[in-house]
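Give me the 3D structure for MKS1 protein.
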Amino acid sequence: EWSSPACQQLSGVTQTCATKTLGRDNVAYFCYPFTLDMFFTQGDESEDSLPQWPVLYFEVLSLDFWQRYRVEGYGSLVLPASPGLHQLTISTWRPVELGTVAELRRFFIGGSPELEDITYVRIPSTFKGERLSRFGFRTETTGSVVFRLCCLQQSRAFLETSARRQGLQTAGGGSSQQSSVCNVLEAFQRARRRMQEACGTFPQDLGTSASTL
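Predicted structure for MKS1 protein (213 residues):
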């Protein structure tokens, strides 16, 4: 089960951003930073099933020069399960009404159909059945939103694994140092034996002449 601090705000609104024409698309650079802290508590320790990661829902709105307000799209993304930097492009859609009158009303007056429950983008929070039918629900693809997420993860299991690795590295480092010392001593003993053997086979006359010089 996922939870968050009581003082943390789980919803928000970005600033208004003017669009820029790139090719055939109108692009808006929001660059809106946000921070989210989530905690996962596993109720049954014997469960081997992986947790369902939190979902981020978003809604894109537009406001023109005449203060006409429109819904441009809905979307959702599942937070990445791996730490690091992630850049995700999420496609958006909006509900539409049948007929030309609805589109003319949207263009000249503003306003458009909206979702009462934003979780309907995926599986509604109030849904309890086995099959979800969206038959008759008409939508239109509108665009995409790019998210850049920097994810950090902390877990007690990570700490235990890190401690075990550190212990293995320490033990391995001690054994390698001990083996290097033994190798040096063995090399010294071999060199000493070779020197003794060389002294034993050294000619006696050369030793006498060398001592008289």
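DSSP finds three helices and eight strands in the chain. Let me know if you want a second pass.
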